[in-house]
Write a structure and sequence with these properties.
Elements (H helix, E strand, L loop, with lengths): L1 H44 L11 H4 L3 E9 L4 E9 L2 E10 L11 H18 L9 E6 L1 H4 L3 H15 L5 E7 L2 H15 L17 E7 L3 E7 L11 E6 L2 E11 L3 H10 L17 E6 L2 E6 L8 H13 L3 H19 L3 E7 H6 L7 E2 H12 L10 H15 L7 E2 L4 E2 L2 E2 L3 H8 L1 H4 L2
Parallel strand pairs: 1-4, 4-5, 6-12
Antiparallel strand pairs: 1-2, 2-3, 6-7, 7-9, 8-9, 10-11, 13-14, 15-16
Helix pairs in contact: 3-5, 6-13, 7-12, 8-12, 11-12
GO molecular function: ATP binding; nucleoside diphosphate phosphatase activity
Family: Belongs to the GDA1/CD39 NTPase family.
Protein name: Nucleoside diphosphatase
């Protein structure tokens, strides 16, 4: 009887032990399955995305590639999604939001996320899902952030990177770009779209390419880049070389921080005397312009409608340009020398874009010269309200003043003022993408 009881007890203990082992194995297996699923999720959709999944590695080596470039400008944020086939650009998808990230420096991260979300949603839709892990997203901020205090810049860039890591792309650089880099990238965009880098069957650059100059009039800065002509022996302080593919191009390049249209006109308004603030000839009668500054809110207006005039307005910008920093003035003098030499050799085409094109829309014209902006300004002043509103008159006066007082161009100088070339936006973004993708697209 005792033996039977002991045997039964041993069978019970053995069954209980087996039950514990089964539970332990079940829980362990469940944990491993959950861990595997979590790791799969992280490697497929996580925030780092430093390496593409193994299943797409071969796909990332194919000739078809995408690149996402975010332009954090002073007046807005734009996304450019470029598609490449080998080293040739296939097309671009574009979208923009407002305001610029520089205006969100004091806001919380939610506003930065809201600013970027529509742009990244555009990228997700535009790029086939299978290419997401192979595609890099880069954000470059321009003069709007260059003018901010370092702590505000750091906040914006840090929060921006957090937002980008939510998306299934490789997060590249998130930074403030140098002004000279911005100018050279814009020049490269125009040169590439004009075919200056088209290659022969031997793969060499086009030897018959024209020479171009670019003037990128942004909101907070203006970039001047001039392709050097053979035989030039003048000032060399601002001459550098752009290396692209197998080509080295000498360029005169300078970024005029503070001479973008929005920043320059704001500085002119801030420098007005008390009398000039009530009879500012760049504004139409009864227009009142608000200025927010460290000293509080102030206003500039023209209470005397008869005081308005293009010539009177232009004098403010002649004075403004001629009283800039010694380095700005030296760069303008050098630019005038290079342009004069190139014009004499009849070997340069000037491309002026961004705000030059935006104001061109007030009166579109097929053939544009420097004088066009003078005539546009005079027409706007006498338009009787059609375009004589807000800051239009002032803006046109500044453009004309920069071309003449700043760069010394004559009224007869021909200009190209494109918004797109070959269906691609004329900005620095394509040039930056080309240089970033150089190792991949230039084979």
């Amino acid at each position: 009887m005792v033996t039977l009881r002991m045997a039964a007890r041993r069978r019970g203990l053995h069954a209980k032990r087996n039950w514990h082992v089964s539970v332990f194995l079940f829980l362990g297996l469940t944990f491993l399955v959950a861990l595997f699923a979590l790791l799969s999720l992280i490697t497929g959709k996580g925030s780092d995305n430093s390496d593409p999944p193994k299943s797409t590695t071969g796909l990332c080596d194919t000739p078809l590639m995408y690149d996402i470039l975010l332009d954090a400008g002073s007046t807005g944020t734009r996304v450019h999604i470029f598609e490449y086939n080998k080293w040739r650009l296939v097309g671009e998808v574009y979208n923009s939001t407002h305001p610029g990230l520089s205006q969100l420096a004091s806001d919380d991260s939610a506003n930065i996320s809201a600013n970027l979300q529509p742009l990244m949603a555009t990228a997700v839709r535009a790029i086939p899902e299978v290419y997401h892990p192979c595609t890099k997203v880069t954000l470059k901020a321009t003069a709007g952030l260059r003018l901010l205090p370092p702590e505000k810049v750091e906040f914006i860039l840090r929060e921006t990177k957090k937002v980008l890591r939510r998306y299934p792309f490789v997060v590249g650089s998130v930074s403030v770009m140098d002004g000279d880099e911005e100018g050279m990238d814009a020049w490269l965009t125009v040169a590439y779209l004009l075919g200056l880098f088209d290659r022969s069957a031997e793969g060499t650059p086009n030897s018959t390419a024209k020479r171009i100059a670019t003037i990128d009039m942004g909101g907070a800065s203006t970039q001047l880049v001039l392709q050097m002509s053979p035989g030039y022996t003048g000032e060399t302080q601002f001459i550098t070389s752009l290396h692209f593919g197998v080509t080295e191009i000498p360029l005169y390049t300078y970024s005029f921080l503070g001479l973008g249209l929005r920043q320059a006109t704001l500085e002119v308004l801030r420098e007005l005397t008390a009398v000039e603030r009530t009879s500012f000839p760049c504004f139409p009668s009864r227009y009142r312009h608000r200025i927010d500054g460290e000293g509080g809110v102030s206003f500039v207006e023209n209470i005397d409608g008869n005081a308005q005039g293009f010539g009177a307005c232009l004098r403010f910008f002649h004075r403004f340009i001629n009283t800039r920093s010694s380095e700005h003035l030296a760069a303008l003098r050098g630019g005038r020398h290079v342009l004069k030499f190139a014009e004499g050799a009849q070997s340069v085409e000037i491309f002026a874009f961004s705000f030059f094109h935006r104001l061109w829309r007030l009166r579109p014209a097929d053939n544009v010269t420097v004088q066009y902006y003078k005539e546009l300004g005079e027409q706007v002043y006498s338009a009787g309200g059609k375009h004589n509103s807000g800051t239009n008159c002032m803006d046109v006066a500044y453009l004309y003043g920069f071309l003449t007082s700043g760069l010394g161009l004559s009224d007869k100088t021909k200009l190209n003022v494109p918004y797109v070339l070959n269906d691609v936006k004329v900005t620095w973004a394509l040039g930056a993408s080309l240089l970033s993708m150089e190792g991949k697209v230039w084979r």
